[in-house]
Amino acid sequence: LRSSEGRYAVPTVLVDREIAARNVASVASDNEGGARAAVATLIRRGARRIALLGGTPGLSTSRYRLAGYRAALREAGVRYDRRLVLSADYLPATGRRLAHRLLSSNLAVDAVFTSAYILFEGLLEELRSRRLARSRWPLLATFDDHPLLAHLPVPVISVRQDTDALAAAAFGLIEDALRGQGRVEHRRVATELLLR
Which of 27, 40, 91, 159 has the most crowded Cβ, counting Cβ within 10 A? Predict the structure, then answer.
């Protein structure tokens, strides 16, 4: 499907990813803005030592969410500490493994932001396994949302992606391409910050 010039011969629209190809359009949530808003809220709630449990470093979503995390710290004058950033992949067991590593370290942490709900699940499992009083848990925030977050015994800030808007934008770009009116665009869809 790819020509010798690195162009795709079939109109291609990526959803929730970007790659370096001259003729590949994409639609993604505002990953950087959503992460920045969540981390800024943690800071407004008093957090200064905020850890990030992230996914696959090479993915565009991971890079943008890390950029949002760093921007929020910078804008608030909070020092970035790379030891508080742990990344691996987006697998269910990864969140728990990263959380275990973070919470077993000597690093002081008063908040944790996970770059995906699937990583948050692992963080939650690790926190519960430690049988800490809820008052000793760090402040929590995650990119993505799930209805169960409203029923947890601690408040969780989440970033909701507008999947309907993502789908509509992607199909719009595909329809344009099929009519021969397509152009390479990288559209961003706004996210919604949910405060609990």
Answer: 159
Average pLDDT (150-179) is: 93
- Round to the nearest angstrom and report the end-to-end CA distance of the chain: 46
The pLDDT of residue 7: 55
- Given a contact cutoff of 8 angstroms between Cβ atoms, the answer to whether 35 and 61 are in contact is no
> For 49-78, what is the mean pLDDT?
97
Cα Rg, the chain, nearest whole Å: 18
Give the Cα separation of 128 and 155 in Å (integer): 15
Sequence-ordered list of residues with C-beta below 8 angstroms from that of 93, at least 6 positions apart, any chain: 122
Report how far Cα 131 is from the mean position of its chain's Cα atoms: 27
Beta-strand pair 186-189/24-29 = parallel
What pLDDT digit, counting tens, does each position of 120-151 carry? 999 999 999 999 888 899 999 999 999 999 99
Mean pLDDT for the stretch of residues 17-24: 79
pLDDT band at residue 163 under the 50/70/90 scheme: very high
